[in-house]
Amino acid sequence: MSNKLMSYLPNYYATSKVITDVTNTQDLELKEFSDQIVKTLNEFFIDKSDFTLERWEKELGLPINNSKLKEHRRSIIKSKLRGHGTVTVNLIKNTAESYSNGEVEVIENNPDYSFKIKFVGTKGLPPNLEDLKATIEEIKPAHLAFDLEFTYNTNSYLHSYHLGWLSAFTNKELRTVKLPNEDEGIFHERMANFSHERLEVILHAH
């Protein structure tokens, strides 16, 4: 184990068991102290907060539900913070994007007193769809209705890919997965989630 404190002392202390034991203990305590400082600072940022999520929720008047994933709770908190002030298209757009972690388009339909939120940056349904709908309902003007539109991979789009690539995914995954260009190779993040068998299918597809 590295003893940083010993590096500041004269070399002859290295042979002292007493000094070594003392500095080892102090080193551990200082590391723990440093870690706690970092954790405390993280609580000031919603994306990194953990044990203060309840405090954020209480201050914003949000229901506390510890059974929900922390990522979902964070997205609700961020949406609530973004929802303060005058309601604009950008506000609704930013709120929806905080839930989907992808780009959305807000399409206004003024004659019908409605608008549509179209998810263009991600495929399929957001994991916390009900929370998103509740938040939009809360921040939008009461006289406006809204619809949600989601995008999926169509058969014609999938037909442009080699069968070997597609066989690495289940039918359900094919509708929502973001497929890389074949000349660019598989995204490293995606490869990390593949089993050995699935990688073999892809690598021998051509």
The oligomerization state is single chain
Number of strands: 3
Supply the number of helical segments: 10
Average the pLDDT over all residues and give the rounded result: 75
What series of H and E elements makes up the topology?
A: HHHHEEHEHHHHH
Helical content, roughly?
40-55%
What order do the strands of the largest sheet run in, or round the barrel if closed?
A: 1-2-3
Tally of distinct domains: 3
Structural class: mainly alpha
- Largest pleated sheet: 3 strands, mixed
Query: Radius of gyration in whole Å, from Cα?
Result: 25 Å
Q: β content, as a range?
A: 5-15%
Unreliable spans are 182-192, 201-206
N- to C-terminal distance: 49 Å
Could you say which overall geometry the principal axes of the C-alpha atoms support? Answer: elongated
Nutshell version of this structure?
46% of the residues lie in helices and 8% in strands. It is mainly alpha-helical.
Secondary-structure topology with pairs:
Elements: H1 17-42, H2 53-59, H3 70-82, H4 89-100, E1 104-109, E2 114-119, H5 129-139, E3 145-149, H6 155-158, H7 163-166, H8 171-176, H9 188-191, H10 196-203
Parallel strand pairs: 2-3
Antiparallel strand pairs: 1-2
